[in-house]
Amino acid sequence: MMAFYECYSSSKIERENQARVEKFLEDYRARRPTRYTYADIKKITNLFQEILGEGAYGIVYKGTLSNEIHVAVKVLNDSEGNGEEFINEVAAMGKIHHVNVVRLVGFCADGVRRALVFEYLPNQSLDKLIFPKSFKDNITLTWKKLHDIAMGIAKGLEYLHQGCDQQILHFDIKPQNILLDHNLNPKISDFGLAKLCSKEKSVVTMTEARGTMGYIAPEVISSNFGKASHKSDVYSFGMLLLEMVGGRKNFDAKADTSQMNFPEWIHQRLNQGEELKIRIEEDDDVIIVRKLAVIGLWCIQWNATDRPSIKVVTQMLEGDVSNLTVPSPFTTRNTTHVGPSTQELTVISEQE
Fold it and tell me: Which of 35, 186, 224, 348 has its CA 20 to 30 A from that of 284?
């Protein structure tokens, strides 16, 4: 009887081990990006029928996989670039599994034809909700929800900077690259300008600026202001926070440069002890607006050493606003008046 029991027990352990291995392989297959042919891409997008958006590097189409799961398919421009944007996205996103980062489902590299297949997020990008002229009538973002969105973005960035095997610097954090799921949870997307480096490396050397005007940290534009690092993403996140607060873009190429810029206006009012009173509806709204504004101002400090890390930013968002002080002195030099005048900067080569 004892021998029978030992045999049964041993078989049970083996079955459990096998089941554990099978589950791991199933999860691995589900997470590992699939390679598609261009014919697959045409089938998935129903011959590129529905356009979701268009950027500097290609067009994004809505698609459907065989199991009726919707996806977003980014078809990259054939004639532009040397494939760096494609390599960056696959290399970076193939390593990422986080609730606040868009998941890469698969990719296509069929000759010169390249495409990226992502999870589909029905509420599209954050800019369509926070900028008044593009507000959706059926979605209203409360300040509590805006705070939750800011927290989600910060946690996604913290994962990229500290949670991966390699540090991933995004270099293009902006509302257009924050996608929202059906519950309006934010997910960081578009890693075409990303830089992978070791966690031990505090700075990276760049030959040119990369990113989008209005969100680029001074040190990314010119090495005269220091070296690019994870603090460069913090600067971009700070500008994004201030845009969420104001419901307006921080940079307008057509605007009169003599006008006081938005970060200056926020700092002046907060430094004088005045409330911002921006779209206030609930009593707690004043607290949330002040918190987001103060954190945003800390993030866009001119000197990278004066900015908090994204981990500290997350702690600030989780903490009490009474513990936050307005940064002073506050440098109002604006990076949008430095460097190229084009709205989108091109992908560049880099030297270690």
Answer: 186
